[in-house]
Design goal:
The chain has a single domain (21-337), classed as Alpha-Beta Barrel (TIM Barrel). The chain is built from 10 helices and 12 strands. It has helices spanning 57-69, 88-96, 113-122, 137-144, 149-160, 183-192, 219-227, 293-297, 302-314, 334-337, and strands spanning 24-28, 74-78, 103-108, 127-131, 169-174, 196-201, 232-234, 243-248, 254-258, 271-274, 279-281, 290-291. Helix 2 (88-96) packs parallel to helix 3 (113-122) and helix 3 runs parallel beside helix 5. Bound molecules: S-adenosylmethionine and iron/sulfur cluster. S-adenosylmethionine is lined by residues 33, 39-40, 78-79, 81, 107-109, 131, 171, 173, 200, 202-203, 205-206, 334-335, 339.
Length: 339
């Protein structure tokens, strides 16, 4: 097999062996979280990383700068819950100052957004996604194991007060025998606000290993539920976009579907992930990962780190195998990967 050195003529582009150009990086800033969502973490949490194991802000800044130099344009900060990392807005300001970084975004459960919205906007965040699985307080509690819906909705309003931060996306994980009852309220939210509501299919990345193929409520099933009462028309999308977005044809609102299980989009995947302790993952479902922290801490030059990254990216997985017999979920669950 040719290695990435065979691509001299396209040296600056970060490419894998399947010809995909990589331009999107998800950075997990902590493995810790203040929620315990059923589809992600166990009720008792997970063994957290020691402080010294987690990349410092300066280490994240150096790696993100290196990735941007290699053609990464979009960086999303995630976790765990990013806002529980102490002094998080300072990290946002360090990263937003990196020349060449086009889009710096955040995925959060929203619990601390009321406190932090002003600081992260001032620090230069471009876009924010808020995860909300139910708009009913008791059912929100059932999923997240925290009675926190009013606090999260205040956080959503606090970020929406900043008109520069658009679009604001509200993401709901779709699970069979739960989300069917949520669809009506989310449609109402999408039609009466400028939030873009998106349903994400439940993936086998839950620490409790409760996922089964039957537990996935597919995007097509939810769309059919909505189309009983509303006509939808699909909007054009970029090939690398994960969501299929529809508008309500009577004019009000948009609704999206991220269908990684029923309609995998691996062929157009342009994403990498960096875990809180500095492992590079080339797929959500990667079995292998590449350590960047040890080389970083033992004095590797930018050229040496670049070589490690290019080698890892070259070997990016062709596709996930969730729908194949014998599929085994990765050892890490979603909060430890950085969703
Ligand atoms: N704590 C933040 C939050 O919840 O938005 C950021 C990290 S969380 C791991 C990132 C996203 O992954 C959230 O939207 C969450 O709902 C989603 N997620 C977590 N576990 C999932 C699973 N098993 N299947 C699909 N999405 C999942
Ligand atoms: Fe925490 Fe986000 Fe996982 Fe929920 S989905 S437990 S908020 S990391």
């Amino acid at each position: 097999m040719r290695d990435h050195r065979g691509m001299e003529s396209e040296k600056d582009e970060l490419r894998d062996a399947h010809g995909r150009s990589i331009s999107d990086l998800r950075v997990s800033v902590t493995d810790r979280c203040n929620f315990r969502c059923q589809y992600c973490m166990p009720a008792d949490g997970l063994p957290w990383l020691e402080r010294g194991e987690v990349l410092s802000f300066e280490e994240i800044e150096r790696l993100v700068g290196l990735f941007v130099g290699l053609g990464i344009e979009d960086v999303r900060l995630t976790g765990g819950e990013p806002l529980v990392r102490r002094d998080f807005p300072r990290l946002v300001s360090m990263l937003s100052a990196i020349p060449g970084l086009c889009d710096l975004s955040l995925t959060t459960n929203g619990y601390l957004l009321e406190r932090d919205a002003g600081a992260i906007v001032a620090a230069g965040v471009d876009r924010v996604n808020v995860s909300i699985d139910s708009l009913a307080r008791d059912r929100f509690f059932q999923i997240t194991r925290r009675d926190a819906l009013p606090q999260v909705m205040r956080g959503l309003e606090a970020i929406a007060a900043h008109e520069r931060i658009r679009p604001i996306k509200v993401n709901a994980v779709a699970m069979r025998d739960f989300t069917e009852r949520e669809v009506g309220a989310f449609v109402e939210l999408a039609r009466t606000s400028d939030y873009q509501v998106r349903f994400i299919e439940f993936m086998p990345l839950d620490a409790d290993h409760a996922w089964t193929p039957e537990s996935v409520l597919t995007g097509a099933e939810i769309r059919a539920l909505i189309e009983r009462t509303h006509e939808l028309a699909e909007l054009p999308r970029e090939p690398s976009a994960t969501a299929r977005v529809y508008r309500f044809t009577d004019g009000a609102g948009e609704i999206g579907f991220i269908n990684p299980v029923s309609e995998p989009f691996c062929g157009d995947c342009n994403r990498l992930r960096l875990t809180a302790e500095g492992k590079l993952r080339t797929c959500l479902f990667s079995v292998h990962e590449t350590d960047l922290r040890d080389p970083l801490r033992s004095g590797a030059s930018d050229a040496e780190l670049e070589e490690i990254v290019r080698d890892a990216v070259w070997r990016k997985e062709l596709k996930h195998r969730v729908n194949e017999p014998g599929f085994r979920p990765p050892a890490r669950s979603m909060s430890a990967i950085g969703g």
